[in-house]
Specification:
single chain, 189 residues, alpha+beta, SMI1/KNR4-like, three-stranded antiparallel sheet, 5 helices, cell inner membrane, cell membrane, Protein Syd, Syd
Length: 189
């Protein structure tokens, strides 16, 4: 399964660049996000106004590890989820597919990567407590309490209501899922 990582890496880079290009074509500038000095990111480019900064997804060049999660929970995480969260730093990216609208989640910075790992640990512990197969979230949908997850055993992509078993299969692999997405460009308010 490790061999899928380079293809997933390319799919994520291509998707994030497509989002960036379509955003700039439609709105004439880089995407913007609320400025927060306490959550600085290498994605930040320049001030847009007093409250917002321009940003862009960037390739992660440092080595990120999920060893602490795997060791703490005595579990091996699927290679696809590790590749997904260690490919780019980015604000969440809106996307659409035949199943609806969603937001792909990413780490905004190294500090945010650490926080993401804590959230994944909480999700895994909840699944174990409920005696459900382990899934790992990587996107949220426009439906309340529904997340897009990766089945840790199979690598399949599913929709699940938080606290419930996955109920709708979306793709056989994370790469396959990313390749079927289109950036969803809209004007922030």
């Amino acid at each position: 399964m490790e061999s899928t990582s380079p293809n997933l890496h390319d799919a994520l880079i291509n998707f994030s660049q497509s989002y960036l290009e379509q955003y700039r074509d439609k709105l004439g500038h880089f995407p913007v996000v609320e400025a927060d000095e306490q959550w600085a990111s290498p994605c930040e480019l320049s001030k847009f106004n007093d409250d917002l900064v321009h940003w862009q997804p960037i390739k992660i060049t440092e080595q990120l590890s999920f060893n602490n999660v795997e060791n703490a929970l005595e579990i091996k995480l699927h290679p696809s989820i590790k590749a997904y969260f260690s490919t780019i730093y980015s604000e969440s990216i809106p996307a659409t597919c035949e199943h609806g609208h969603l937001q792909l989640l990413f780490a905004w910075s190294k500090d945010d990567f650490d926080r993401l790992q804590q959230n994944l640990i909480g999700h895994i512990l909840m699944k174990q407590k409920l005696k459900q197969d382990v899934t790992l979230f990587f996107a949220v949908t426009d439906q309340d309490d529904h997340v897009v997850t990766l089945d840790n055993a199979t690598g399949e992509v599913w929709v699940e209501k938080v606290g419930r078993k996955p109920h709708k299969k979306l793709a056989n692999t994370l790469e396959e899922f990313i390749l079927q997405l289109s950036p969803d460009i809209y004007v922030e308010k």
